[in-house]
Amino acid sequence: MLKRDALLRYARRAGVSLLILGAVSAIAFWLRRQPYVADRAIYAYFEIVGSVLAFTFAANALVRFRGKHDRVALLLAHGFVVTGVLETYSGLTLYFRSGADAALSMPLVWVVVRTFLAVVMLVALYVERRLPQPRNPRREMIGALALVVAIMYLTTVFYFAAGSLGLPPALSLQSSNALVPRPRQLFPAALFLLAAFGFHRRLKDRGTAFDRAIYIAAGMNALSHFFSSQSELLLDAPSMVAQLLRVSSYAIVLGGALLDNLRLFDQVRQLASSDALTGLANYRRFLDVLHAEMERSNRTRRSFAVIFLDLDGLKRINDTFGHAVGSRAIVRMGNILHSLCRTVDTAARYGGDEFALILPETTAEAAAHVVERINARLAEETESPRLSASIGVAVYPQHGNNLEKLLATADKVLYAVKKRQRRKNGRKSWKDAAA
């Protein structure tokens, strides 16, 4: 039964693939018969725009490598730099060429650089899977540059060697009546298709916007060379559609890199202002919010409360159950505070077992209710070991008209509660401690 279902899935996928191939072939044949010849300037503009996109993508891919040590991004960055340089040269050369030959022949540089980029994609997949991760980023960048230069050299040697044998790949026009006028354009198309297949498999482990964009771009470049194989003139309709697909693929990979870098920057910003274990605000963020609330309270003449919490017996938990259980206790405390917060409240972990809550526009009585809710939630906990906390409260501006006095009051109440809890079993409210 399972084999039958698998065969049905494969047959369905094969049918969809054949349907797509038929549709693309029909469009290519239709374009081939269109009496359209573009101006050389349009082709040159495509090359220049593609080069700018390639350079911009390379810069963003290097940023990604510096942040995540993604070797695929590093190799593609170097590959796109070389691609941008050579495509700029190709576009400018074609623009200043004269005569009918400019509309007929396909620049060798363009074909070489397209094959080179496809090979770089395949090599990047191989390097990521087969070679160990080096520990020196600078050495890795030098190694990636050397590898890309070697690929460029070997690709150029291949095409010139093929030309010396009388087999100029992808350049010669076989026949205007042939089913595929430029069959050797299918060689880079096959390489890009293989790269698209490899990046599609990679999505199972890495489904980021960057990886999806590379997969889509590889497929679009394979499609670009398929249309180029139907081109009879360099500037005819199939050729220009191929150029449009190529430039669009560069825009897609750039968009994927930008989206992924934005996500990376957002993660860095979150890590800079939040505690890695609990996800609550860290001490730096706690102070920033506290300063902002004091300024807002001075403007609105409305009080706000600060609640300090100290998790009782964390050292005992670590010694008895281990540090993993101790870390879990800290997370449990953070989850309780987060669940009891309003949208405008700020929960923070500013020390090993020390937490804080900032409650905007909150009176002493309202803060007391929050303390009772925290204690009630701790009492309802069924996970072992059971948790308890010493809690101190200070209200601005009643208990301090500046940051130091406010925090000192909250600390004083907290440690008074902790001192009484050591003498007696049971919790004391912060009001009792203040009295």
- Computed over alpha carbons, the radius of gyration is 33 Å
Report the count of strand segments.
4
> What's the N-to-C terminus distance?
76 Å
Secondary-structure class: mainly alpha
Figure out the total of helices.
Answer: 15
Mean pLDDT: 81
* Strand numbers in spatial order across the main sheet: 2-3-1-4
Strand content: 5-15%
Structure commentary:
This protein has 15 helices and four strands. The chain has a four-stranded antiparallel beta sheet, sandwiched between helices. The protein starts with a helix and ends with a helix. It has 435 residues and is mostly helical.
Q: What structural keywords apply?
A:
mainly alpha; four-stranded antiparallel sheet; elongated; 435 residues; 15 helices; disordered C terminus
Please give a quick description of this structure.
With 435 residues, this protein is mainly alpha-helical. The chain is 69% helix and 6% strand.
Topology overview:
Elements: H1 2-32, H2 40-68, H3 71-95, H4 101-104, H5 108-130, H6 137-164, H7 186-202, H8 209-228, H9 237-273, H10 283-300, E1 304-311, H11 314-321, H12 323-340, E2 346-349, E3 354-359, H13 364-380, E4 389-396, H14 403-423, H15 430-434
